[in-house]
Amino acid sequence: MKRNLFYFIVVVALLIVAAVACNKDKAVTGVTIDYNELELFVGETATLYATVSPSDAANKIVSWTSDNPDVVSVIAPARGAIIARAIGEATITVTTNDGNFTARCKVTVITPTPIEPVMIRVTGGTFVMGCTDGQCQHNETPTLNVQLSDYYIAQYPVTQREWRAMMRSNPSLFKGDYHPVENINLDDIEEFLLRLNEAFPNKNYRLATEAEWEYAARGGNKSNGYKYSGSNILNDVAWHSGNSATEKHPNGQTHPVGGKNPNELDIYDMSGNVWEWCSSFYARYDSVKFRTGYDSTLNIWINPQDTAGIQHVARGGSYLDLQYHEGKENGFCRVSARYAPSPPMMPGHLGIRLAMSVE
Fold it and tell me: Mean pLDDT over residues 89-117, rounded?
């Protein structure tokens, strides 16, 4: 038994030595950076990522430097984290551990300018809130009779450029100035709204209530009764799991806002791309404990809002959502579909759309 154990240990040791020797032969052959050029606002942070070739190289350690640290400095030399400190240009260089290979990214730093969102005025009216197309999910019934006052809602979801201008960072998983911002939670959104309203003090931007969101998605008083926001044909108005894949992200990703057709109110991306947080808490439609606005005489909810709960509700579906769910055609990109992300959830399919009251 002892002899067999000895032979086993020797064999394992030889295999380890052979593996190490083999891996030493995997010499580094190059390095690239995920961006050749990058634009940042003063005060903004970002992280650059390097890819060392081959993928199984023995030594994939790299270091990062800046040729103009007064403009852009490296705050984590081993990780590629940088911060824009002043207006100007700088070149960030990544170098492999052996010093034989480098790659560069030119960073331009500009002054952040708050971006005023394009808002669409929605004329108030009455509508039936909830599932009306016969393809109901369990949380879309019973329907509610709702009456809304006039309000404004953004023509597009908040983009990463809008977010960066306020927050000096971009948490999104799928980078692109005109892609919707995502990977954000409600605390982040609260801070964003605070800064945005400081920049535009007469606007009082906020999130839409769930009722406001659905009414706008349906086309308001111009509604044609579509299943999705603006069409009965999903591909015409939405990025979803059936059309959002790219070579870089074969499982799907977000796309620049406004790339599909708008709805009856000239609002884009209310079906697909990213789910959109609402100010309302999630509650079943037949649970009225914390819902305000009921007029028992008219049997109608006037500007309803669910004011308490555990989870806020999100609406609209995303690039990840299936064309068919439980045998029903795209359950999650329909105008009545509802989602209750668990806090502090902040995945890459949750974004926001702004709203504003009419004073």
Answer: 93
